[in-house]
Write a structure and sequence with these properties.
The protein is α/β, with parallel strands linked by helices. Helices cover 41% and strands 16% of the residues. The strands form two sheets. Strands 1-7-6-5-4-2-3 form a seven-stranded mixed beta sheet, sandwiched between helices. A five-stranded mixed beta sheet has the order 8-9-12-11-10, covered by helices on one side. Strand 5, helix 8 (191-194) and strand 6 form a beta-alpha-beta unit. 46% of the residues are buried. Bound molecules: pyridoxal-5'-phosphate (PLP). Pyridoxal-5'-phosphate is lined by residues 88-90, 114, 161, 186, 188, 208, 210-211, 220, 222.
Length: 399
């Protein structure tokens, strides 16, 4: 099921190579069509284009050549027929949900899904009469038990981006198919370089392009990939009318980022693995959540579904939140901030999961994103400041 070495090498060709497009004077990069509308020589041609404003360039909320170019490229990378780009990841996610589920219908969603996605679903449930069940994504049988006659969508995210828990994608895809339910997955963490959900039977793949695709922390974007039929439905029902279209300048930036996606991911993966392994060996680190580590509880599933791991992981520690926040503040090479997927290493600190606090095993949780810096310099930075956690004045604040 995982991507083969051959497929991974081909990915490099796919991101680099484009077929010759004679419309642009041989320009090797797609020009930025910085235009809101497109005019026609004759009214007859205009009438023809107006029959499908998603397929023809009439108005940039429906179709812009620079955006479409990126859409075609991402569709090929995911192995899908068609794709739509959006102004942000949440633009894509909300468009998928609005297009596929209406009032009185039911969604089953992974309880560790991206926070704003869960907030959106909770709001749809409270204010728009959409039924939502959140459940543990590890519990495949729980999904079967949650199915109702009005269930329309399984909303998945695997691995999740806080605890890095996985769902059994082929099993959930076939369960959903047997009940006429559509499956959609947030694949931002893995990217198509490390995980291809469509090949496992999933219907729709979404990404925050803000993260690895962009790769340079300079733009927001989202995408959904799937069959021509489903992407067409999303296009007409919510892409056009909710209006979260990607700007052409953004499409150009994200296309540029995409050219080096596999190169960057290899680097993030090897550095993050080295640093996660280093942290896992510490006596005061209780657990490192990283699907590539030996202690990962869903190791077998990870080996089946993922062909690599990227740069984002988390760990829980016995030190207090306050002390870990000071540790994070003192780091030289890690910036404190949300998001991830760029060149720069990032860190955020919060409370450990409730069960760890209750059973007295850990106090703080740390999410790390490993950029493209020298991993040994990052480890030295971590160590230099870790030593301060044991200064006598702080010691009493750890478990
Ligand atoms: C960032 C993120 C999103 C949302 O994407 P935006 O581009 O910020 O709207 C969705 N899912 C995951 C896993 C993310 O990390």
């Amino acid at each position: 099921m995982t991507t083969s070495e051959r497929d991974k090498n081909h990915f490099y060709t796919q991101v680099s190579h484009d077929s010759v497009d004679s419309r642009h004077q041989g320009a090797i990069t797609m020009p930025v069509y910085q235009s809101s509308l497109f005019a026609f020589e004759t009214h007859q041609k205009f009438d023809e284009a107006m029959k499908d404003v998603l397929a023809a360039s009439v108005y940039s909320r429906g179709n812009n050549p620079t955006v479409m170019y990126l859409e075609e490229k991402i569709a090929r990378l995911e192995g899908g027929e068609s794709a739509r780009c959006f102004a942000s990841g949440m633009g894509a996610i909300s468009a998928v949900i609005f297009a596929l589920v209406g009032s009185g219908e039911h969604i089953v969603c992974v309880d560790q899904a991206y926070g704003p996605t869960r907030e959106l679903l909770a709001d749809l449930s409270a204010r728009f009469g959409v039924e939502v069940t959140f459940l543990d994504g590890k519990d495949t049988e729980g999904f079967a038990a949650a199915i109702r006659p009005n269930t329309k969508l399984f909303y998945l995210e695997s691995p999740t981006s806080g605890l890095f828990e996985m769902q059994d994608l082929p099993a959930l895809a076939s369960l959903a198919k047997a009940h006429g339910i559509i499956t959609a997955i947030d694949n931002s963490w893995a990217t198509p370089y490390f995980q291809k959900p469509l090949s496992m039977g999933i219907d729709l793949v979404m990404h925050s392009l803000t993260k690895y695709f962009s790769g340079h922390s300079d733009s927001l974007g989202g995408v959904v990939v799937g069959s021509r039929e489903l992407i067409g439905l999303i296009g007409h029902r919510s892409y056009l009318n909710l209006g979260a279209a990607m700007a052409p300048q953004t499409a150009s930036l994200i296309t540029r980022g995409l050219r080096t996606l596999p190169l960057r991911l290899e680097r993030h993966q090897s550095s993050a693995f080295k640093i996660a392994s280093h942290l896992a060996a510490k006596p005061d680190v209780v657990r490192v959540n990283h699907p590539g580590l030996a202690g990962y509880p869903q190791k077998e599933l990870a080996a089946r579904q993922l062909s690599g791991y990227g740069g984002l992981f988390s760990f829980v520690t016995r030190h207090s939140v306050e002390n870990m926040k000071q540790w994070a503040t003192d780091l030289d090479y890690f910036r404190i901030g949300v998001s991830w997927g760029g060149y720069e290493s990032l860190v955020t600190v919060g409370a450990a999961p409730a069960k760890d606090i209750e059973d007295g095993s850990a106090l703080a949780s740390v999410r790390m994103y490993i950029g493209i810096e020298d991993p040994d310099e990052l480890i030295a930075d971590i160590e230099r400041n870790w030593a301060k956690l044991y200064e006598p004045s702080l010691r009493s604040q750890s478990l």
